[in-house]
Amino acid sequence: MELIGLEYEVDAVVLGGGISGSCIAKALAGKQWETALIDRRNFPRHKVCGEFLSPEAQSTLRALGLTETVASLHPTRIERAKLIFEQGGEIELPIPGAAWGLSRYMMDEALHTTAMQTGAQLHLSTTVTGIEQHEKGYTVRARQGADVKLFHSRAVIAAWGANARMANAGQGHRPDAAASCQQAYIGVKTHYAGLKMEPVIEMYFFQGGYLGLCPVEDGSVNAAALLNRSEFVKAGKSVLSILEAAIERNRRLAERLATAVPVHDTQAAIAPVYLQRKPSPWDGHPRIGDAAAMIAPLSGDGMSMALRSAALCAPLADAFLRGSISLMEWEHRYTQAIQQEFASPLRWGSLLQWLMNKPAVQQLLPSAARLAPLLANGLFRATRLKPLEPLEFHTKY
Ligand SMILES: Cc1cc2nc3c(=O)[nH]c(=O)nc-3n(C[C@H](O)[C@H](O)[C@H](O)COP(=O)(O)OP(=O)(O)OC[C@H]3O[C@@H](n4cnc5c(N)ncnc54)[C@H](O)[C@@H]3O)c2cc1C
């Protein structure tokens, strides 16, 4: 028989303490709701991400009251993007507005601290293993080592990313049926020391994927790659061996990294990655961040979307907990808001991903000298969220 270690009565439970989870936990705690934030990992931790925070994130960070928290980590300012193709050609694009390079190691930890200082309870190394919905709300079952924890709450928000690890998943979470017929990718990352970089994000394309170099706060450079899984199955099991196999597919990338040294213990991997095209914002409870929709990482807007979904969901969660709206109304209004804001960037993100995977496009783009930057710029812009309107709906936190 299983022993229940601890039981908690809270207003809201947030499943997953990445960017979206911490932000909504902070927002709800700021409204005086007892909020538990649960993550299966211990923090700080390195996470597969390009670590490029797009200018579109700024208005949402402001609305969530998080600009100072993030700015105080001294992110690197990024002004341009360089796309470098397998055949050696390149395109350079200006980045309008303030884009930042910031490690997830620092950022996610800082967001946890802010959420806790606002009053949220943090449960790390705690894996959610089941969610039960009943008349009074939900019971979330989680495991921390040998202990089982039960959280009873009126609201549950799933912020556990695209690859939620939930053993014994009940009805609450199952992989998208469509995922099995989609292209599967692997994501890998490391930090490098010994690389000089301008305030530029460099994206290298090659057969089977791409790799982005982004300078981050401590002078090191983050390298993150998204690779077609089928093309890299023989590349070995370590992150560095997979990265090596990717790097040798683009001569200019190999030259660029010739003297770079991987920083110890900064490697991370994630697989499989499926890029959903359609948002899936509700599953008996709201889903936010990558759990709701994952945009092609190439657009560099995933974190901005994670923040935005938290900002869209928080006022509705607050209204629900106050008793001003029903669960059904929360579902309806949140689903509508996500469809309205995310559907178009997701579609364009998929198109961008598909086009950049085509060797013919990679060959053509750099030679179409004047047209290419316009085209590429237009495409990237189409993947972006509109700035967050200061509507009454977007309460300040
Ligand atoms: C290769 C690659 C490059 C990218 N580059 C960029 C970029 O440059 N810029 C950008 O904006 N976006 C980028 N992204 C996307 C970005 O990383 C995500 O959009 C963002 O991390 C989503 O945040 P989230 O809070 O939804 O989920 P996550 O940050 O993934 O957090 C989810 C959390 O849930 C936890 N969790 C999962 N299951 C459980 C469970 N059962 N119990 C408890 N906790 C659980 C996990 O441990 C994790 O901490 C990239 C993604 C990839 C794959």
Question: Could you tell me which ligands this complex binds, including any ions or cofactors?
Answer: flavin-adenine dinucleotide
Strands, count: 17
Relative strand content: 25-35%
> SSE string, helix = H, strand = E?
EEHEEHHEEHEEEEEEEEEHHEEHHHH
Task: Give a quick precis of the structure.
The protein is α/β, with parallel strands linked by helices. It contains ten helices and 17 strands. The model is unreliable at 167-175 (pLDDT under 50).
Keywords:
397 residues, alpha/beta, 9-stranded mixed sheet, 10 helices, 32% helix, globular
Structure overview:
Mean pLDDT is 89; it is low at 167-175. With 397 residues, the protein is of the alpha/beta class. Helix 2 packs parallel to helix 7 (302-322) and helix 7 (302-322) runs antiparallel to helix 8 (327-356). It has helices at 19-30, 57-63, 67-71, 104-118, 239-247, 251-256, 302-322, 327-356, 359-367, 371-382; strands spanning 4-9, 12-15, 35-38, 52-53, 76-84, 90-101, 121-123, 127-134, 137-144, 147-153, 155-158, 185-193, 200-206, 209-215, 221-228, 261-262, 268-273. It is built from ten helices and 17 strands. The longest helix has 30 residues, at 327-356. Helix content is 32%, strand content 27%. The strands form three sheets. Strands 4, 5, 6, 12, 13, 14, 15, 16 and 17 form a nine-stranded mixed sheet that branches. A four-stranded mixed sheet has the order 1-10-9-8, with no helix packed on it. The protein has a four-stranded parallel sheet with strand order 7-3-2-11, with helices on one face. The protein is globular, with a radius of gyration of 21 Å. The structure holds flavin-adenine dinucleotide (FAD). Flavin-adenine dinucleotide is lined by residues 15-21, 38-41, 48-52, 54, 127-128, 159-161, 164-166, 187, 224, 226, 270, 273, 289-291, 297, 300-304, 306.
